[in-house]
Hints:
Layout: E1 14-19, H1 27-31, E2 35-41, H2 50-60, E3 69-74, H3 80-99, H4 112-132
Antiparallel strand pairs: 1-2, 2-3
Amino acid sequence: MRVTRSIVIDETELVERFIHASGPGGQNVNKVATAVELRFNVQHSRAFSDSVRERLVALAGKKLSGDGILVIAAQRFRSQARNRADARARLAALIEAAAQPPKVRRATRPSRAAKQRRLDDKRHVSGRKRERSGPIQD
C-alpha cells in the first residue's frame, strides 16, 4: 500500500478482521460481518523512519495499543469492501500526517509599536480601576 512517494507499507504488515457492525443495515447487520478492524504494528514496521514512527505514535493516541499496534475500526458503510477501503484510507491519512515534519518555530520579538500599545492598554485599564474605587478616606 503506497502512502507517500517514500513510504510503502507491505500488505503482509496489515491484519484485517471482519466483525459484525452496529448501526443501520437491517437483517444484514445480523448476518454479515461488514465492519473491518485493521491492525498495523507500528513498532516493528520498516516502512518509515524513527522520527515518523514517533510522530505516528503521538498522533494515534487511543488507537494505539500498549503493544504498539495501531487499531482502526471502520463500520461507516454497509458493505465490507467500502469499510475495508475506508480503514486503509484512514491509516494512510494518519501516516501521511505523521510523515510531515513539524514546522520549526522561529523566535520573534514584539515591535516597538506593539510594546507601546501593550503599555498604553495597561495604563488605560489601571486608570479605569482607579476611577472605580471610592474616594480615599483618612
